[in-house]
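Retry 2 of 3 after timeout on previous attempt. Resubmitting structure tokens to design endpoint.
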């Protein structure tokens, strides 16, 4: 079942997910982004920054909290990654404000992160 979802999941950037969140809500997506840190109240994929530009100048998608995920993600911190997750767009619609660690991306499977090569 998971393999079938992955075959159908489009690979999108953080900006593409933000732009298409209404259409993608509830779907499994593969999101490419920078994972600068992942622990406690701070775990998100960010748009890939330009050399010398701080990552926080870009857009972010929060990753739902899971101690298991945070331990798994530790070896991916500071890298460009692909995350397989189900999208929940409540924090992207603009009618509520989400603080700290939003539940926008819900990781799917035992190994939802992969390294992404820079282009």
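Retry 2 succeeded. Sequence:
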């Amino acid at each position: 079942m998971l393999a079938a979802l992955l075959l159908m999941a489009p690979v999108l950037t953080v900006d593409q997910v933000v732009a298409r969140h209404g259409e993608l809500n509830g779907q499994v997506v593969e999101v490419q982004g920078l994972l600068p840190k992942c622990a406690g109240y701070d775990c998100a994929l960010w748009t890939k920054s330009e050399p010398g530009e701080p990552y926080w100048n870009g857009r972010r998608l929060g990753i739902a909290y899971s101690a298991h995920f945070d331990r798994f993600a530790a070896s991916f911190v500071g890298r460009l990654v692909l995350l397989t997750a189900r999208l929940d767009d409540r924090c992207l619609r603009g009618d509520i404000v989400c603080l700290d660690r939003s539940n926008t991306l819900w990781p799917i499977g035992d190994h939802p992160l992969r390294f992404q090569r820079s282009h």
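Attempt log closed. Strands lie at 11-13, 28-35, 38-39, 42-46, 60-62, 79-87, 105-107, 113-115.
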